[in-house]
Amino acid sequence: MKRHDSHVHFFENGFPGRYGAWFPDGQEVTVYEAFRKEHAVERALVVGFEGAPWAAGNNYTIARLASRHSWMAPVAYDALEQVPEPVAWEAWRQRRFAGLSFYLLQPEQEAVLHSVPSAVWEVVNRWRAVISINCVPEVAGRLRPV
Length: 146
Hints:
Strand order of the largest sheet: 1-2-3-4-5
Strand content: 15-25%
Radius of gyration: 16 Å
Largest sheet: 5 strands, parallel
């Protein structure tokens, strides 16, 4: 059976955590490579996140990593601060992202997602993009129209 990891993160300086980064200086990938080997993980969805100051530039980081590791399928973080234009999401596809990552942590972000015009969703459908949505259960229940 082929195994795929559906949600993994990599950060330039490691995930900071409560007590400091467990695997700083790019060691996250090294540790994950050992995990992949041990558990026969063929591919991993690398979820972008830039929703905190320490995570700024994470899309660039995971794109760079994915260019060196064929088993990575990155999804680009979009903060949903404004309704995107089709070219904005098309740019992520051009950069070889597998899709998009949304963290719906504020009510405004959910409202923006509901306001995305059909022309933008057409880009996503042609792209056959993976959409990763992270939210609380009550928000998930309201996403059916999206």
